[in-house]
């Protein structure tokens, strides 16, 4: 099957290694993967900030770049959630664009959901000799969980990675406090939320916290480091599954 990969702008700019791990996993699942050169943003920041015109422009750009693929895969619950659940609203009032979107909507998947339910990946790629081994705890990012129903899929895949043991933390489904511009507008509340998340991570005793959304990842890692924890690793699920961590 021919898959269009939306790397996401945050991965592209901040952690491109996540994109390469995603590519590795999709190819291991037998997919022909194409990464459109001109892709940029899914439109989430503009939409969340109330700039509907900019969000619509980016949504149409997404349609132009991705509508020709069998499937569209996104290694991010928040970007996947924007495309899968908010484009109907973003494109409202534009029937031709809504019709185009309707034809691809069911082909849009978050990475782990695609690997489990479409590609049915049964064997992970061979891991590097120095890849991560140890205990992990999993943080369920809000958009992936609540908009896309991603919860069991990453855990099912992590169980296939030899040398990695999952230990659930308390309140794994609770927000990390990022929420895009929420963390900027309500800094004190955001800090209190992420502090609670960090406490649960520490209480789990895990060597690493794993998750599927880079925004949450950067928020949690930043708070851990600023509060003196330079040991607990913060990893995207694609890195662990691909054996690249």
CATH topology of the largest domain: Rossmann fold
In total, the number of domains comes to 2
Structural class: alpha/beta
The radius of gyration is: 18 Å
Number of helices: 13
Largest sheet: 4 strands, parallel
**CATH architectural name of the largest domain:** 3-Layer(aba) Sandwich
Helix proportion: 40-55%
In short, what is this structure?
The protein is α/β, with parallel strands linked by helices.
Describe the structure in your own words.
The mean pLDDT is 96. The protein folds into two domains: 2-117, Rossmann fold (3-Layer(aba) Sandwich), CATH 3.40.50; 134-241, Rossmann fold (3-Layer(aba) Sandwich), CATH 3.40.50. The longest helix is centred in the last third of the chain and has 18 residues, at 187-204. The protein has helices spanning 9-14, 16-28, 44-48, 52-66, 77-90, 95-104, 111-117, 142-148, 152-158, 182-185, 187-204, 214-226, 237-241; strands at 2-5, 32-34, 71-74, 108-110, 134-138, 164-166, 208-211, 233-236. The protein is 51% helix and 12% strand. Helix 5 (77-90) packs across helix 8 (142-148), helix 7 (111-117) packs across helix 9 and helix 11 (187-204) packs across helix 12. The radius of gyration is 18 Å and the shape is globular. It contains 13 helices and eight strands. It has a four-stranded parallel sheet, with helices on both faces. A four-stranded parallel sheet has the order 6-5-7-8, with helices on both faces. The chain is an alpha/beta fold and 245 residues long. Helix 12 links the parallel strand 7 and strand 8 (233-236).
